[in-house]
Amino acid sequence: MGRVRVTRVAQFVVVALGIALVAGLLASPAAAQSVNRNAIDDLNEQLLYVALPLVLFVEVTLVYALYRFRNNENPKPTAKDSALEITWTAATGVILLFVGISAFFVLANPYISPAAASQPAAETAGDPVEIEVVAYQWGWEFRYQGENVTTQKQLVLPVDRDVRVSLTTRDVIHSFYVPQLGLKQDVIPGQTTELRTRATETGEYTLYCAELCGVGHTRMHGTVVVLSQDDYSAWLDDQRTDT
Prior knowledge:
By secondary structure, the chain is an alpha+beta fold. 41% of the residues lie in helices and 24% in strands.
């Protein structure tokens, strides 16, 4: 009975591992909608290439141990093997070094880290768009610097152009979160936080507040609209006319 149970467990592990590996290798992520999202997706892909072989190795070792020692009624401690211990310690160190270096370059990216957002912008069409975002209970206000345009709950951006955003709040802590564009930044009272992005696809995306900020938190959302440069210029002209 015990042998049958071990065999079933091994079969289940093998099947689950096979499904996970096939899903990981065949799944092709959708094209990133911004340079921010692209940097995050690239890091996840690099880590996936490290994680999958490790998962395979661990699961194969587990299945082997289940089968090899299935009838062992008198188990004994594993014999000391210095070479093996040095090998797996060194391998772990190499893997952690790879993960650390990969993550460092992403965190140093000015489109990811607020501390690096003041670095010179990449070469894109036109000067960077400067926008001040003011969070409040429970909404968003967007002020387009030098354009005399202010909007509520709708942020409009030009495609393929650097956008620099300064975030402030009138009251409590909020969090500016646009998952499809790879944007997420806390907004702290008394501080101005810088954020940079460059959208690479036109479209409409949802903006959320990702920090519990009171009874109206669930309805504190907005819309981010990415337009072509011509449509963006026309939109600005319409906003000035309306005001």
